């Protein structure tokens, strides 16, 4: 009974995606044909015929560790023994864009495909905290921070313009809703929308896991893959993780105009994965 309840839950999540894609077909199907470049987030496990689309800031480090255990042919047995930075080395996992078109089509048709999603603004605050408030993320400060400061801050100091390590959340939001930003280049994967990273209107995912029910959903997927008896999803309590309360606080200083524009950017993720409009938003 437990399994059938879970199966029904995943069916409801799949239907929600299908309905949202249909209702928003104009905006979500602009590009009808996926290119190999669109498939670089889809990690392939040949041995268990699984495809996982990873979304940064949604437990993707641990899922990549699990995928390394599954595809490592015995090289690893405990996901948590794999250092986090090693999980993100691209050569450690095979992605779908490395295959020929017939091979891609065969895998998309026959493999079990899944992804994990998270409340969009909680994910965004998590990305901001990780990339812009941690001193060690200098590459992000240089690459994006300096640009954001230059564009969004009047009278910025020379040091801020050079280092880009003191970006305020309000400036980050202003950068995201600035039409110039999207025209210039695609969003970085840490704040890119899930529908742009994983293309759920073009790729039919069998399972949609949620960050809010990470453990149950993950172990259900491992069970379906036939590895649940020897592999469990790593659990750990992270005291630093971004919560709803924290997200509420970050949005306190964002004007209702900017909140409305930001919601528009992430609207399809909210609708597609059934997240309601946050109660703290003051939408116009």
Automatic annotation (TrEMBL):
Keyword annotations for this protein, in alphabetical order, are: Carbohydrate metabolism, Glycoprotein, Golgi apparatus, Membrane, Signal-anchor, Transferase, Transmembrane, Transmembrane helix
Gene Ontology cellular-component terms listed: Golgi membrane
Instruction: Tell me what topology the record assigns in the membrane.
Output: Single-pass type II membrane protein
- Enumerate the Gene Ontology biological process terms: carbohydrate biosynthetic process; proteoglycan biosynthetic process
Q: What is its EC number?
A: 2.8.2.-
**What is the annotated localization of this protein?**
Golgi apparatus membrane
InterPro entries (alphabetical): Carb_sulfotrans_8-10, Sulfotransferase
A GO molecular function for this record?
Answer: sulfotransferase activity
Hey, which family's this protein in? Belongs to the sulfotransferase 2 family.
Descriptive protein name? Carbohydrate sulfotransferase
Biological source species: Acanthisitta chloris (rifleman)
